[in-house]
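Limitations
The structure tokens in this dataset are predictions for the assembled complex, not deposited experimental models. Users should treat interface geometry with appropriate caution, especially where small molecules or nucleic acid strands are included. An illustrative entry is reproduced here so readers can see what is and is not provided.
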Amino acid sequence: METALILPLFLLVLYGVIWIIRAGVVNERVQIAVRYSGLVSNEVSPYVQYSMYALYNNLEGIGSPPTFSCGAPTTDALENNGQFPGPLTSSFWFPSGVTTGTCTPGETSLQPGVAIQPEIFTHTLSQITSATPIQGVLSSALGSVSQSVSAAQNYLDAPGLGTVLTCLPEVDDAVSASLQRTKPSLNVNSIAPLADVLPRSAFALAGGC
Amino acid sequence: MPVWAFGTLTVLVLFVFALSYGSMLRWQIRAQNAADAAARGLLSVQATQWNEMESDLQAAAVEEYRIRTIAQSTLLTIHGDGGCNSLAFSGPTSCEVMYENLRSQYLDAVARYTSDITVLHRITGPTFDDQANAMKASLALLQQNCSLNNGGDCAFDYTLVAAQPRVDQYMEDVYADCCSFAVGGGTVAPAGLTKNFTPMEIEVVACANVQAPVPSFFTFKAPTYVAIGRAAATTIMATQEFMYPGTIVNPRTNQPFQPVEYPESATNAPVLGANNDFWYKTDFGGNPATTDGQSMFWYQLVNDGLLTAVGWWSSIAITPFSGTLAPGASFQCK
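Predicted assembly:
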């Protein structure tokens, strides 16, 4: 009699253990997916971001505002679809729900006050959501219960030259004028010597940076 | 009955353990992500300063080359040499007209060069110590701005535990002189080099006190645990390159990066016939290079030219280097 009473409860808890182990692994792997996105996938293409090519093609009047791309967290950190390095995982550990990875890149800045010059960054917000619905015996006992799993991290990085020139118009003006040989705005009739004491003033940030 | 009850309780305990263990793993990786994101991001302060400096130095180098060639050309027109017509007082080939054009271009070039140097002075204003202080302040802002584009993970307290020069052999040569150039290859920073020009390495800790997912179980109370992420990063050259900008074609424009200029002309076109302003034009030039197909480049030094050798900077993650840290003393936890 007591077996008939307790066995269902015992099995329910036992299946709960199995489910929580799966959910725990999925929880860990969404963090891994975000990590892979932020530290590996979103590594900028060095030649496009940091090069003479990037410098000359982002000068004033030539470059369009820098566009940013990023690699969204791959669902392969949770499943096997060939994008993620490392050993294959057993299907037991797959999330049962839909997994969605997104990334939002852009340029940003910080002005902590103690810095002489504004600090500019590229940032990438990597996010992933998944779910581990309760299945099998548990679902028939508890109904449609699902644990939503998510992870997000905002990664900052050194900006490419396009962003530097866009965000700091005074640097862009000086560099572009020399590399493009544009005529100074004022008509120059004599050579003014460099001042004995040059300014150390902060650059103004462009809007949107 | 006692056997079933004990068995069920045991499995329940296992359930709580599994839940706690999964939670701890997740928080540790999250803490590591937060620390890595902050450490690499903060070094943008130094990497960006140096990239701005390299950009401006390239502009100044182009301008200096231009000033030198214009001064040379001006001298020729004064002496009536180089092909200009010293007898004519008007017309594009007149030495006098060329002189006027060259003078105007010279003044413009010097004005731009002055601007380059003024901007360079502002770029290089922040010292190594200024940047380290700025990073500390930025880390506080990163925490304060959490959940924004310029913020970190709201769950953690961030601490900058170290910011120091990186003194090792992982430097890259990027230089050129009259007769040779070097790009790449490990080198050691010269002794006595100011730390303002030494790559920085920093270490950041992200820490949070985390409540257990099941705070109490019957009479047992689970203590909070600490999720700690330690991350270090350093400034490093992302790319190194060398090029004659007067020869190498920009694939976007199909023109050399720094095309030939004709400062002796009012229209920036040769006045002595196509390609015949040899003594007056500003040709950023270059020399024909051949390669052995492996790692060597050979230049025949037959032309003038502006050779650029430059490295561009970014940051990479490295192994934490600060040794043992004490919670509370070395870093704070949220």
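Some entries come with short summary sentences. For this one: The longest strand of chain A covers residues 119-133.
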